[in-house]
């Protein structure tokens, strides 16, 4: 029972990671705009990767707007969130392979990696929204990727932005119940 109390405290203080989610909505919206441009697919993929560099500064700004606490020295599980986020980088060789060998699939693979990495946050923040949305995002994006042609790849980042916004709303509801 003590563990659930700690997880709920982290959930409330960190607001279920909503600052990062809101930043991700903005970044996937930017990626949507990139994929709507009449650029070569390799350029789109490079700009997609560059846009992710906005994640940390944008997350700091969004977390400030949402009044999220950043210092969790009193919560033993706080560092796990950082490790879970860094763990997704291990999958980036798959993304690099896709950019080189199958450039039209890179956006789908990137979106699946991002969607799937949310799953353990369900445990960390003691909320079902991450448990539900991680596989939903991964499967929906896979479905889109299987059926889209090169002209309509912009639907993948647009779908990610919408799905992340849904995840944000679900996390907000969970946060309000706990707070």
From TrEMBL:
<dbReference type="InterPro" id="IPR053824">
    <property type="entry name" value="DUF7010"/>
</dbReference>
<dbReference type="Pfam" id="PF22765">
    <property type="entry name" value="DUF7010"/>
</dbReference>
<feature type="transmembrane region" description="Helical">
    <location>
        <begin position="130"/>
        <end position="148"/>
    </location>
</feature>
<keyword id="KW-0472">Membrane</keyword>
<feature type="transmembrane region" description="Helical">
    <location>
        <begin position="154"/>
        <end position="173"/>
    </location>
</feature>
<keyword id="KW-0812">Transmembrane</keyword>
<feature type="transmembrane region" description="Helical">
    <location>
        <begin position="80"/>
        <end position="100"/>
    </location>
</feature>
<feature type="transmembrane region" description="Helical">
    <location>
        <begin position="45"/>
        <end position="68"/>
    </location>
</feature>
<protein>
    <submittedName>
        <fullName>Uncharacterized protein</fullName>
    </submittedName>
</protein>
<keyword id="KW-1133">Transmembrane helix</keyword>
<feature type="transmembrane region" description="Helical">
    <location>
        <begin position="20"/>
        <end position="39"/>
    </location>
</feature>
<feature type="transmembrane region" description="Helical">
    <location>
        <begin position="106"/>
        <end position="123"/>
    </location>
</feature>
